Amino acid sequence: MDIRERIANAKSPEEMEKYLLDLDSEFRFKCRRCGKCCKNQDTILFNARDIYNIAKKIGKTPKQVIEECAEVYIGDSSRIPVVHMVPVGLQRRCPLLLPDGRCSVHDCKPTVCALYPLGRVALFQDVKDKDAEITRENIRVKYIINDYNCGSAKKRNTVRSWLAQFQIPEEDEFFIRWNVVTVNLSAMVRKLEENNCSEHTLQMLWNAIFFALYVDYDTKEDFMPQFEQAAEQLLKLCKAVREMNFYVDSEGSVTEVESSIQLPVTGDWHGK
Question: What's the DSSP call for residue 212?
């Protein structure tokens, strides 16, 4: 059972806490630069900033990066579009890995790769109403140590020092905003699915979410203002749907519904 499963299966907050790290928690790991963590790996998920940074680094559009390095599917639990790195070759290596074992986008590698062997988790707290919109005040950021089969345990680190080494902000505004947006969108889509929304409507919604969140960025412009604009538009849609207690089906009939939404634990880690 990996760390994600242990967290998901925790029977109490106290049991979950024993797997979580804070900024001053210590762990032992030293990277040997062997490239092993970049091979036989098919659990890497990209967020919007990852794709934007890679596109800017290699002089392509976000759409081209996704077409060349990833696949898009609807998450089993989130029910919104997920962008998953597709490994290549017999070694199932990362498509961004150079023949000499170095990362072609080392200075802007995906967050999940930069964090490794750590993972970053967004925990949702003080959510009293299952239909309430999630805000940044509901999110608590913690870290985990992933199971790993490379490197060594010769070096002692703290989470804080590891983040600093790889220039990952301790207070990462994008990480908070990304989780707020995706969790609220997930709740919206799950509500529609539970109440038999038409497949046509869902497909249009999924396309809108995918292009707004991942694709429609100009790499000549700063990322965060573009992301915030997309997030604002999508969250307005999210809020409007949350406030509705009916849906219109494919034949135009209006039906009253009740919502039932589970809040996932999300974050930067290896997994789907």
Answer: I
End-to-end CA distance of the chain: 15
Q: In the numeric block, which tokens belong to residue 147?
A: 């199971």
> What is the dihedral angle through the alpha carbons of 209, 213, 215, 219, rounded to the nearest 10 degrees?
160
* Per-block mean pLDDT, blocks of 10 residues, the chain (272 long): 61 71 92 83 90 96 96 94 93 88 88 91 76 81 86 89 89 92 90 83 88 96 96 79 50 39 43 41
Omega of the bond leading into 117 within 30 degrees of 0 (cis): yes
Please tell me whether the overall predicted TM-score, pTM, comes out greater than 0.90 for this model: no
Structure tokens given for 33: 């630069």
**Contact yes or no for 95/87 (Cβ under 8 A):** yes
Which tokens is 64 given?
């081209």
DSSP state of 269: S
Place of tokens 């490994």: 87
Strand order through the sheet with 266-268: 139-145, 118-124, 266-268
Assess contact for 110 and 101: CB atoms under 8 A.
Answer: no
